[in-house]
Amino acid sequence: MELAILLEISADKPGNVNLVVGFEGTNHAHFLASAVAVARHFELAAERGMTVSRGEMGFSHIGVGQIIRDCVADISSWQSGGNTLLGTVILFSPLAVAAGMTPMENNHFNITNLRQNLKVVTESTTPEDAVNVYEAIKIANPSGLGTAPEFDVNEPSSVDRILREKFSLFQVFKIAASYDNVCSEWVNNYPITFDCAYPHLKKQISETGNLDTAIIHTFLRVLAEYPDSFIARKVGLDKAREVSLMAGEVLKLGGLNTAAGREKMREFDLKLRKSSNLLNPGTTADIIAAALALSVLSGYRP
Questions:
Q1: How far apart are CA 33 and CA 53, in angstroms?
Q2: In CA terms, which of 34, 59, 69, 151 is 20 to 30 Å from 270?
């Protein structure tokens, strides 16, 4: 999973931090440090999944929320670039547990079995998991957080209510799923990741023979089909839809495979970077990282 994060940040995706272009106060080194910082926590998550599969631990004791919080705390300790991987960590933590639960077949995981176990992991979360994720969000302090209609992370009474009314992390994310794609992935068993991003990435790798091109084209495909909720939270859903339309236009012109597509993507990238990074498709990047994780778990090696 560490490899998936490193591959995602290495690709020159429009509007995102990459090895060439960064944001004010945040560059690729902050993401690389973050990837290293979280590796041991994903290993722990997988070990807990293995323990569950042996019947030595119940699902409610996995502590997915604690794993997420500890990841974010270590990220904050190891780099000074602010929030780098919150969405990725939220997507990856239950995925790592599910991988630990899933037997390997010929040195790779069966993706169907992995997804079945992932569903059980997310649905088995607890109120304590929710409280730990709220703490993680406060540590990460993501931009564009805004306010929520219920269980607002900025409202001190939210944690007390979660514990008092016994709302699990899954239930809290279900409330947020209508306006946050990461939460929507959690409660719907990762449909964008498994049904769109991963198969398209796999196809692009096979067709182009170039991992960077495959990542960028998959990023554009997901962005074109699913308006980025990180952008929507910061500047509104209409603007997020405009960005999706622009991503679709790049693909229609052939993307990196044609001169016209490359020029259109250059223009697209410049537009996304003009507005103080308000148009950074950060949630789409998180989903691409998850698709890369599935590729690595299913046996892909760069």
A1: 32
A2: 34
3-state DSSP of 119-139: HHHHHCCCHHHHHHHHHHHHH
The pTM of this model reads: 0.96
> Which residues neighbour 156 within 8 Å (Cβ) at sequence distance 6 or greater?
none
Find the DSSP H helices in the chain: 2-10, 28-53, 64-78, 86-101, 111-123, 127-140, 157-165, 169-176, 181-187, 191, 198-208, 211-225, 229-235, 237-252, 259-274, 282-297
pLDDT in tens, 257-282: 999 999 999 999 999 998 778 999 99
Q: How far apart are CA 43 and CA 60, in angstroms?
A: 19
Tokens of 102: 């899933």
Conformational region of residue 115, where left means phi above 0, alpha means psi within -120 to 50, and beta covers everything else: alpha
Q: Phi-psi category of 107—alpha, beta or left, where left has phi over 0 and alpha has psi -120 to 50?
A: left
Q: What angle do helix axes 127-140 and 169-176 make, rounded to 10 degrees?
A: 60
Q: What is the DSSP letter of 195?
A: I
CB proximity list for 263: less than 8 A, separation 6 or greater: none
Q: Is 192:287 a contact under the CB 8 Å cutoff?
A: yes
Domains of the chain in sequence order: 2-297 (1.10.4200.10)
Neighbours of 161 (CB within 10 A): 14
The C-alpha atoms of residue 295 and residue 289 are separated, in whole angstroms, by: 10
Cα distance between the two ends of the chain: 13
Report d(CA 8, CA 188) in Å as an integer: 23
CA 251 to CA 247: how far, in whole Å?
Answer: 7
Q: How many CB atoms lie within 10 A of CB 243?
A: 25
Nearest to 228 by CA among 244, 217, 247, 246: 244
pLDDT of residue 148: 62
